[in-house]
Structures are given as structure tokens and as C-alpha cells.
Amino acid sequence: MPSNAVPPAPAATQIQGGVASCGSARGAAVATGCGAALASGVGVASGAEVGEACGVGTTATGAASRGEEVARATGAWRCVAGAAALGVGLGVGVEVGTGAGVGVAAGAMLNRSGITPCSCCGARGVGVMIGAALGLGVGVSWAWTTGAASVAAARPHSQPVLSLPAFTPDSWPSEPEQWLHTPSVSPHAEGGLSAPAPSPRGRWKRETLVAGERTGQSPGYIPAIDGLRAIAVLSVILFHLWPGALPGGFTGVDIFFVISGYVVTGSLIGREFASLGQLAAYFYARRLMRIMPALVAMLLVTLLAAQLFIPDAWLSNSLAQVGRFAFFGLSNVVLATDTDSYFGPQAAYNPFTHTWSLGVEEQFYLFFPFLLWWHHKLQAGAKAVRLVAILSAGSLLLCAVLGVFAQKFAFYLIFPRFWELGAGMLLCLTRERWQPWAAGKAWLAPAGLVLIAAGFVLPEGPLFPFPGALLPVAGTALLIASILGGTAPRALGSRPMVAVGLLSYSLYLWHWPVFVLFRWTAGLHTLKLQLAALVIAVALAIFSYFLVEKPLRFGFKRWPRGRVVAMALTGVLVAALGGQALIAAHDRITLSITRDRFAWYAEPGRALPLELTGCTPTMAEERLERGKVTVWSPRCARPGGFTLFVPADSHGLAYAPALQRLVAEAGATVRLYFRAGCPYFKLIESHASRPRCAGWYRAVEQEVSRRSRPGDVVFLPGLRVTRLANQFDNDRDLIGPHDDAVSQANFTEAQGIASRLAAGGARLVLEAPKPVFPSPTFRCADWFNRTNPICHGLTIPREQMLGRRRHVMRAMSGLVASQKAMILWDPLPILCPGQVCEAVPGGQPLFFDGDHPSGLGNDRIYADLKRTILGVRP
After folding, report:
1. How far apart are CA 254 and CA 455, in angstroms?
2. Residue 193 CB neighbours (<10 A)
């Protein structure tokens, strides 16, 4: 998330002739003070330190006798201590104030304290940093500081007084670049000389730029914006971890969109560029270095973890594609065109689903610079406002329309989401008009909080994103207005909220992959596991913020902007290639036993027996009524060739290896019909109960009847009892009682379907129910996932299975008796020869999940299936 750009109201620090008349500090030190010398690390100080209190090898005691250091201060100090493993150090508060900070990665500590106007000041303060070893000797620290000050009466000055903006604890800048963009004239100076604010030491000194130089008043930093970010990210995390506690917590992303629109617009207001190229180079350099380093790091680490712990399956088949496109800001497009929604199981098990919002923002950045340039760099006033308002209104209208006809598009894509970013842009573009009005309006903040809270309470449903997203968007706009109007709750600018806000981007990036990987492995079903996942996510976010996000964001500020853009794009491309290499290496590096694809996966490309490799069938695909027809044709001529029609669902696809082998051995042509969510000839459910599939059912019957000839066969596999476990938790099909009875209406419907399928002279083979198991085998066969709550065993007593299918078997026997062209094939005796049905007998998987046969399962049943199909032909 970009740094905050809002106009400040800084306090003035009066210093006689640029040098305080006197200054003193007292403090105590353990070891050598905050810097901890070279023995335990290197201390680096910048900003307003007293003397060398945070310097290398210098004690903190009595180090503040040099008042000129105070004159050089801008109001905050910063100490980075390189303490390793475990260490203790003391820091001295500057003049007055308290400070708190998070120490991370080899004991890095941030501290801050304000400067009070004075002639003679004394300060006492002590801070303790404790770094505990974590992982490979990397310390994670939390620093506490307290400070107290006594301020003497100021002596009158005979020399002119310089008015310098001072950062108090409530306006301390979170990022180094914000030291550069603070207004250089204090609005509190009365009768004194106005002078530019002095820059902090060395590397914080502002470089003079031609492109992007400010020509008007520069926005400053207000911590409450980061507090607002904290609300957004915490709501998203709580929703993902405890959705019942905050049903609408996902609307935190909408809060982020409004903030981004406001802050990104403010970051360019008043800057001058000689050409569109200069503007684009400046803007993209900032955006790329802001977003991409942490994003790329997360993507690579998550891709590696996914290859190690997540098996290939329907549940994860979009993982690689979403991760691949997330490098280029297009994951939202992939998710919008997928078969699952943000709230569906496939998205919930994809560690890259959350990158959709980054895709929206990155696509917003593509045209944002052109919007600025075409409208006189936002100096055209009404023109810019009018254009953004028109675009936002059109986006809102599109969101409303797509919300009815294509909800996934309304949720994921930039065009129906632009209005949320546009709301932030309009707030910034019209700030000078409404900010005076907002001053003193105490009702703004409560109204905004109520709207945001309402968004958090309302669960997902058909009313989101329109009109549901109007609540958090309007609430965020009101809160921003209250912040700039000076009526926002002080809690928004408190240090804990600001600290979370500063980490919000890294927290957003890392929390979701951690939660998803827990779902795939140990589970996320107990408070202990939930808290463990949360701690790991926060630790990764802290590491990412201090080791990746901040160093790379500010490490190239002196580079030419064009070079930064080229370097960033090259880095992203190289990282994307590395991610693709990880995806390609899945079977070689995965820790799952499913790496044996030949045994586990019933794939169309599964190798045939050696003697048949020369007859590997050719494959083609045809479209039929929003579904597909996979056609396998024999490569080797065989006598007595025929066509095998297989109208089915995923249980027909699970027979792909056996069907291809039949093509190679018998010279048959196979036509396999599939449309997701449209099971065929299920019996315990009627075709009439799925009206959206009516056209598909009708088209299949017509095509089979038209194409079939005497001697052809129609094979009808399927799941005809209620499954015990799906690939994911909380399958809606499993909720409520199921007796697996076949009603008279369903029986009559099945008779009509069978008659129409056999109209061309084909014979029908109806598959009896196979064993079903209480756990998805591929998710419960490894050491790291056997304790997952979805795992309830990989066996089922044979008698129990026979009892579960008794009603269906009775109906099937009645169908066979009434249809002379139909026979019944029962694979259960082959797959369950003993008293207990086993999904993985002797370590050999016969089932991939709870009810689909594996590659070895196909091998087990192939001979009997072939005998049955060939035997039914005249």
C-alpha cells in the first residue's frame, strides 16, 4: 500500500539561530547503549538524536551535551541495532515523548520520540530491546521506551527565530520518503522567518529532481490513514480465520481500494513533468518498488511450499495458473474466468486467491498516469474531477449489471471495481473544497464507522459487490473526511494501529498463503492451529517488511527512474521464470506420495502397456451445448470396430486410462461427454432437478441417438450413492440426511432416458455403485496431512457399503428387467474382495479421493470392464 499523502498541521520548534541555547540529557546504559557496539551489532542512527546516543560504541549516558544535534533534528529519531540472537540495550528518549517499535530481523529496532519547543530542556528515558533467536539465529524484537521531560521557561531571544516543522508522536512519518515531502513552511510561524525544513542526516537528504518536482503544497503524513489500513487488514484476516465472527470482513479490501485511490492521487498532486515519459517513469518506478519486491518474494516462497505440500487435484488445478499470472497482475482475470467463486472451495484452497485485489490495483496503475497527463497533471481541476466522476459512475453501473448476470466478473475485474478507487481519487481531487466543511463535523467519523461495521456484519451473497460494497466505500470516504477535518477518533492514530497499518501490505500478502497451507496439511480447525497460523503469518509479514519491502523500496531512490523501472520489470520476469520452474518441478520435489502419478492419477495421458504404445489413440475435443466431447480414435486398425458412448460426469473422466486402453486394444472409438455440474443418469437425483443442465441432457441424447448404430455401446458410469467425503470440507451435498432412495418419478425418467439412448440400436452398460470412503485418499495419505479434520479413515466395511447401495441396486435391477438393451456391471467385488473395502490396500492406491478410481484402480478393473463391454455386443 502506498505511503499516505494528506496535509499536515505541524507544530513549530523554535531554535535560536538554528542552535538551541542549551540542551542536556541523562540516561543509563547497559553494555554500550542502544548501538550495542560491534560486539553485538552495529547501531546506525538518523534523525533527531542527542549527541551520539545511538552511535557505534558510544554510551548513552551524558551523550547529549551537544545542543547543535537538536537543531539538526526534524522531530523523530530512529535507531537500528544489529544485535544478533539475544541482546539487551538501552535507548534515550529525545527531549520528550514516548516511543514504541517493532524490532525485526537480526534485532532491527525502530524508535520514535517528539521534540518539544524549548530553550533549556532535560530528558530522561530508557528503552529495552530483547531479541530472541528464531529460526536460523534471526532475532525478532519488541522495543519499549518511555520518556519524561521537564521544560524550563523559555528565555526571550534577540535573534530572529526560525520556524521549523516538528513531527510529534501523532505525525511521525512512517517512511523515509515522507521526510522529503513535508511542507517546508510552518503554518504556525508568526512574524518569524520561514525556512525550508532541514533534512535529516546523509541518506535522508532530499535530492533535487527536475521531473516530479513539487510546485505546490506537498501532502504530508497523517498516521490515522495507516490506522484505517489496520482496520482493513485486520478485518480481512479475521474473516479468513474466523468467518463466523466477522461475516463481511472481506470488505476490508474495499476499504483498501478507497485508500489507494486517495493516496496514489495525492502522491502526484502538484508535481511537474516535462513529458508523459517522465511522468510514467517516475510513477511506475515508485509503484513497482512499492508493490513488486514483497509480492514476488511471497509468490516464490508460496510456490515452493505449494509444490512441497499440495498434491495435484481438481481442488488445486487452478493453483499454478493463478500463481503464474499473479507475477503480472492478472490473477484476477484468471479467477474471474474460473469455475469457482471467491467464496467457493477451489478458491479457498488456492494460496494465491488473495492476489486478485493486487491485480485490480496494478491494472488501475496502467491507465492512471495517462489520466493525469491528459488532464494537465491534475491541475485542470474541474476537468479531472469530471472525468473521474464519469468513469466512476460508469464503473458503478457496470458493477450493478454484472452483479446480476455475471457476479464473478463484478467481483474480480478492474472495470466494475474502478468506482471504489475512483471514490478515493475524487476525495483527493476535491479536498480543498470539502476539507473546510469537514472541519469540526463530529458526526463524520461515527457515521463512517457505522457504515463500515454494517459491511462487516453482512455476509457474502448476491448483493455483493453491488450494492453491498457501497457500505464500506461510503464509510471509508467519511472516515477520511473526518481525519482531514480533525474529528477522527484518536485511536486511529495510536501507535498500535499505525504499526499494524505500516505492516498491512505484508500482512495481507502473507496471511492467506499460510492459512491455505494449514488447510492442506494439519488443518485450521482448532484454536491452537489457528493461533499458530496467525503467529507464523505475522512473523513472515514482519520479516518481509523489514528485509524486503523497506530495503528495496528505498534502496534505489537515487537511481534514474527509467533504470529502476527496467530493473524491476526484469526482476519480475526472472522471478516469474523461476516460479514456472518450480511448478514444472512439482513431481520431482513434492513431499507427497502422490508424486507417483502412474499409480495415483487416472489421467488421459497415462502410459499404456509397452505392447500397446504403438497404438496410442489420437485425441480430439468437440463442443456441445456448453460442455465438451472428448473423442479418442484408434491409431491401429482392428476388426469389428465400434463406437463407445460415455455420457457421464467426473466419474466418466476417471475411467480415461481404461477407455484409452480399450481403444488401443479393441479398435473402438470412444466419445466421452462431460459438463461440470451435470451428472448423467444419477438415479437418486433426476435430470429435471437440474434445469440449467436441461439443454445439455437433451443434446447428449440426441447426439447418441443420431450417431449410434447396432453394435455400438453406451457406458453409463456415475456416483449413484451419496459420497461420504469430498475433496474439500463442508460439501453442501453432504448436509442433511440421505437414504439414497430412487423415487418412482426418477425411475420413470430413467426408463425414458434409456429408451432414447438405445433408439439407434446401441446396447447399454450400467455401472453399479463402487465403494465410497470417508476420506479423500490423496489428502490423507501423507505424514503431514493425516491429522487433518477431513480425514476419517481410508476403509469402509463391505457390509456397510452393501447396505448403502441397496435401494439403488433394486432400482437398477428393475431398469435392466424393463430394458432389453441394458445390462448391469458391478465393479465392487473387484475393488473390494474382502470384508473391509480399502482405498489403499498394501500401500497401492485404488482410489484417488473418496469415490474416484486411481490409475491403479483403472488397471484393477480394466479386464472385467473390457469383457463386459465386448460381451454385450451382438
Report:
1. 10
2. 9
Contact of 786 with 523, CB cutoff 8 Å: no
Burial class from Cβ neighbours inside 10 Å (0-12, 13-18, 19+) for residue 834 reads exposed
Cα separation, 851 vs 87, whole angstroms = 56
Rg from Cα positions in the chain: 34
CA nearest 54: which of 324, 173, 41?
A: 41
Distances (CA, A) of 648 to 326, 635, 742: 34, 25, 19
* Distance (Å, whole) CA 621 – CA 618: 11
Residue indicated by cell numbers 495510536: 494
SS3 220: strand
Element at 660 (helix H, strand E):
helix 656-666
In 3D space, the residue among 651, 638, 534, 545 whose CA is nearest the CA of residue 242 turns out to be 534
Q: What is the DSSP letter of 847?
A: B
C-alpha cell of residue 217: 503544497
At residue 400, what is the residue type? A
- Cα separation of 275 and 345, whole Å? 48
With left for phi above 0 and alpha for psi between -120 and 50, is residue 102 left, alpha or beta? beta
**Closest C-alpha to 70, from 16, 9, 124:** 16
Helices (H) and strands (E) in the chain, counts: 30, 21
Residues 6+ apart with CB under 8 A from 29: 59, 60, 61, 90
Scanning the structure block, which residue is given the C-alpha cell 488443518? 523
Q: What is the pLDDT of residues 115-163, one digit of tens each?
A: 333 333 333 333 333 232 222 223 333 333 333 333 333 333 333 322 2
pLDDT digits (tens, 9 = 90+) for 489-509: 999 999 999 999 999 999 999
pLDDT means per 10 residues, the chain with 874 residues, are 41 33 31 30 31 30 32 33 30 29 32 33 32 29 32 32 28 33 30 31 33 49 92 97 94 97 86 81 91 96 97 92 96 90 88 97 90 66 83 96 93 96 93 92 95 93 92 97 94 95 97 97 95 97 95 83 92 96 96 96 92 92 95 90 94 96 95 94 95 96 95 96 88 72 95 95 96 96 94 95 95 95 96 96 96 97 97 90
- In sequence order, what are the beta bridge partners of 367? none
Q: Per DSSP, what are the bridge partners of residue 131?
A: 141
CA distance 671 to 729: 33
Give the number of residues written for the chain: 874
Q: Which helix (H) or strand (E) holds 822?
A: strand 822-825
The overall pTM is greater than 0.90 = no
Note the pLDDT of residue 661: 96
Q: Write down the pLDDT at residue 508.
A: 98
**Residue with cell string 469457482:** 340
| Region of residue 324 (left: phi > 0; alpha: psi -120 to 50; beta: else) | alpha
How, if at all, do strands 88-91 and 121-134 pair?
antiparallel
What grid cell was written down for 541? 509479514
C-alpha cell at 384: 479531472
**How far apart are the C-alpha atoms of 96 and 114, rounded to whole Å?**
6
Alpha-carbon span 749 to 688, nearest angstrom: 9
Give the helix/strand (H/E) hosting 102.
Answer: strand 99-103
Q: What is the pLDDT of residue 372?
A: 74
Cell of 68: 547543535
Beta strand pairing call for 836-838 and 795-797: antiparallel
Q: Are 727 and 779 in contact (CB under 8 A)?
A: yes
Burial 813-827 (b: 16+ CB within 10 A, else e): eebbeebebbbebbb
